[in-house]
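Let's do one together. I've listed all components of the complex below, 1400 residues spread over two lines.
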Amino acid sequence: MTTLTATTAAGGEAQAPGTGQRRRGVKFWRAVRHNRKATAGAVLLLFFLVLAVFPGQIAPYSGTAEIFQPGLGPSGAHWFGTTAYGQDVLSQLIWGTRQSLIIAFAVGALATCIAVMIGVSAAYLRGAWDGVLSLITDVLLVIPVFPLIIVIAAYLKSAGTLMMIIVLGALGWSYGARQLRAQALSLRDRDFLEAARVRGERRGYTIVVEVLPTMTSLIVASFLGTAVYAVLTAAGLQFVGLGNPNMQSWGTMLYWAENNEALGAGMPLWALTPGVCVALLGAALALLNYAFDEISNPALRPVRARAKRAQRLAPTSQSPNDGGDDQEVRSETGTALPPQATPGPDAPPGRPLLSVRQLSVGYATGSGFVRAVDGVDLDLAPGEFLAIVGESGCGKSTLLFALARLLNPPATITGGTIDFKGHNMVDITEKRLRYVRWQEYSVVMQSAMNALNPVMTVAQQMADVCRAHTEMTSAEIERRSREVLRLVSIDPVHLNSYPHQLSGGMRQRAMIAMALLFTPDLVIMDEPTSALDVVAQRSLMAQVKELQKRLGFAVIFVTHDMSLVSHFADRLMVMYAGQVAEIGPTGDIFSDPLHPYARGLIEAFPSIRGPKVLLSGIPGYPPDLVNPPTGCRFHPRCPWAVPECALEQPAVYVRGSTAVRCSIYKDEGKQGLPDKGNLDKPTSSTTVQALAPFSEANASRPATADGTGGPLVQTSALTRHFRIGGLVRGRTLHAVEDLELVIGRKEIVALVGESGSGKSTVARLLAKVYPPTTGQILFEGARVAQLRGRASALAYRSQVPMVFQDPFSSMNPVFHVSHGILRAMKLHRRDLDKAARQAEAVRVMEAVGLVPAQAMLEKYPYEMSGGQRQRVGFAQALALRPKLIVADEPVSMLDVSIRVGLLNLMVKLREEEGVSFLYITHDIASARYVADRVLVMYAGRIVEQGPTEQVLADPRHPYTKLLLRAAPDPRAPLDLSEAADAGEPPKVVDPKPGCAFAPRCPVAIEQCRRITPVLGEVAPLQLAACHVAQRESASLARKTAPAGQPHQPPSGSPASVTSGESGGSTPPPAALK
Amino acid sequence: MRFVLRRLGFFIVTLWAAISLNFLIPRLMPGNPALAMMASFRGRVTGQALKALEIAFGVKTHASLLSQYFQYFGNVFTGHFGLSITFFPQPVSHEVLQALPWTLGLVGVTTVLAFVLGTLIGLVAGWRRGGKLDSVLPPVFVVTSAFPYFWVGLVAIYVFALKLGWLPVSGGYATNDQIAFTWHFIGDVVRHSILPACTLLVTAIGGWILTMRNTVITVLAEDYVRMARAKGLRPWTVMWGYAGRNAILPNLTGFAMSLGFVVSGAILVEYVFNYPGVGWMLLQSVENEDYGLMQALFLLITVAVLLAILISDVLTALLDPRTRELR
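Okay, and this is what the predicted structure of the assembly comes out as:
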């Protein structure tokens, strides 16, 4: 989803590139009709097709009969004259069409078939086969094929049509195969193929039904490309006399023309006309091919057409609801936002640094004109930290890029003013703007990996901006570069590194350092932390705040994560559907949000401290900005909405230092939101149903509550290694090491870890995407690895389905969403007939809250929002009647207002369907919200585990402590000492013995660097793999042993943790629960 | 460095494949017409030259296939390809080396020129998206890139040589010239090369313009280009240092991959213009059933293409720091 937000932010197409790709299949033919190149190509090709099929009817004479006077010039009877042997040139041309077309299509088809087979199997067979097939492809690609064909043709004397097709086809597939392999490789990582695997589809089915349809455009491109090559090569071969000289073809005509010295003899038409035909046919195919490229890659489409469409659409959608109302609101906002009301509470009265009035930004898309930013007012005082928060698509990034004047076409500022330090930023000249940039304001982008130039070192990228703005010497530039790197706690030795040589956190810091080169007055930041893990995120935020306090620059910080900025921002601006919903001091908004949306956002975040309460999230989904709701844009999702809200746009009202756009405050006396309890409006059916189980406070329910005995799933010493690197210097990545995991019936177990910790590998091991390197998985007591035969393997798969992280890639774009659900039942519930499957599909859709179910089933994935798609993921899993659902970060890519709904859904499904969950997440707060037990993973190993509340209240492992400290929490105190880079988790490649966390650990002792710690009990039911924690708890136990808590061994749980092959100093045969 | 070493390994594998193909093709062909050619050599040729041809075409049936194979490799690396029929009794290797400079001068220079010019024009066209250049070029070049090279050559001859009489019709130099390093001769060579060079340039440049334009457009949407604008760099710096530097990398790979295609066009252009290069000689040898010469030429062309690819690989490694590591 990072790409999604990036593109939307870029103001490009309304949807992500992936979505454009998905639409391609559906809207393909319309696109072809609208593409002029495609039309021209198709018409030409059709013309030749007609000639090839009906030469006898169209040609005036026979092509071979030598019946006329030789060498006639053009005349009414012979448009192009006659040949040296007295044949009619025009008739020869028409008869010759057939052979060229046959060769074009046959070679195209043959080569494309070979290319598909080689390319796709190379990508899917992997390993040595892939290596061999790719090598063959590449060798054939670079060997000059034409001379090779000449050599072969020379031995064959003269090549007939068939021979030519075989030779051209057999030698012409390599380019297509290369492209198809690359595409198949990139598809292989898409989740919908893994989903097919988890479902238990056969490989052949997967390739034919799931893979090939998604590669249609590339297959067609390969076909057209080879056809062009075949036409040109065949004509060339015949021209030099390597074809059959008696054949009727354009190439043969050229051969005879050359033999009879057409040009010298003054008969240029002998050579020119067949050449024109070859060129036209080639051009027709090439035009189609190029048009196809444009259709499948929207970025390449002619930009003019889009700009024109934008101009045409913009005025009509000026006021999507009704014109008069719009005007009225404008005047009201003008009065409602007096200048003295807006600056931050501590800001000195005086001229604001940045003043924005009625700013609107829009762009045209295929489906209409999007007003991404609509009438935004904003004042920023010098030195102020303003955070802009909102869900994806709310226009926050577009607003930010408009302020920085970095909008990419077709997005344009359609109205309003931006005043920055007296510069009129809307109408500023390019030259002046260039001068203001970086000296007076700088920009930090979302993903430093993409925002830093990959082919230049950090030093070079710092130097070019210095040279553009100052007369600094090289030595001065280097001194300053070192200075700013030190500011952000990066060792200046990294100055000469390329971006890809730095870690994610370091890249982001380097970009901030670059932004501070000239100590500007304003730094604009677009989600600079969203690509980072929690710990790195926290230390980066602290760093930014510390620098801002010290150097005094103002910050505009865009984020989707409200809690992240809770104690960093002076003021908060909440955006919804392109408008400002609420703006005011951060503390005020957190303690007493005025806008229903702001309230909903705050209540959507689970907390890691304090009492656990049921969260409701916000029902519904953000609106489509092409057709925003009438009246207040939030009213369809608003629990406080009254009928008037749908009719009139609310104005902006001021309460204290806060401005809010909500009609509730029309009444002068209203100072805050009325209590929600007084409203009889139901929120959403899911959350209401989920309420019941939640009130029971399932904090530490026993894992085997229903008394069926034995855990559901148990692993012993589960280990997965991956070989990485080349054949020569191969290394081993230890993704999962000695995993002991127990999941009880109807239990939700959370597996928490940062990226690279191995948690997703655990999910894939349990879902049998790939087998473990060593170790066992026991499912209801049976060894999973020993489930021989397809039937028992399928049986396991139906018990343990998986929900994937990325709802944008876990469904095949070419099928309706019902596809996965129905396929799953077809494979695993053989007893159901078609009607029963259909009925069951409706049932599971309703169970996950997707109504009306029938209509939802018939949608394409791109027609659904991320939250809806993720619900489909759960519906697919449910359709199998599973016992355990492995959910791999199911909510991490969703907007906060939607996340809670899915978390509640998991709890509800556990209660209603009796399913257990392995909930994999990096967000410890959401783990607390849903899970009975939590496992913390670091560098491939479980470092701590126990009942969720207990572990979170009293973490023993230093890493768990670090994670908890880093988790954003509005109630936690602010500590700027975390600014230093807290380090990032290591990649576990060929590890040495010792604790993997030791290099980052504040309490590490000498033992930690030598001996790998194993899990041992540190408190009742709580285990930690830490020498220090185990020592502490042991010494504590000795002191309090007589009076210690009675520690009951759990009943019926046979699990015990054994140390495995690692360090093995402390024998910890501790009971697991 | 590992990247270049890996590419060197690929170079060797491809070379091996080409030599093996050369060895196998005459043996796999029905009736092996090379045997008939050999008959005409008997008695006229003796010694090592005959042996080399025998090994090349599998006449020495008493030796095992494997030992023939190794002998063939030995002959290839020592340049023993036997004698040519077309230029009897010159050794094949001698004739081949005579043709090489002509082709390198014509095809080599024009190919590099077409690539450099095409890349530059493509960069500007993509940079000024929707501008005049950009709205005219793509459709025009989509069409021209589908033109057969030899036909463009024929049209050029007809218009500029025969009708207008500005330039010579064919050949590499006037037949009454002495091959020598005189200004007169060099001027003559240049005059003869203008038409074939322009033919190659016009047909080859379109592809480079289009691919470069498209990659530039893709690269322009990247965050680092937006970042460069945010930094207030001069448009010139953004275009070269950010958009151009990154867009040229895939284009360079594309260049390496399509060299084989360019060469095929060049062969036909040489044929049309009777230009005394490798391609023309290849077709001459086909006409004269001079299989020894033909196969040596095929090897030479392969090696030349592979060397060009190797050079572009080294360039890629120099321009892209990411290829210098791991992979």
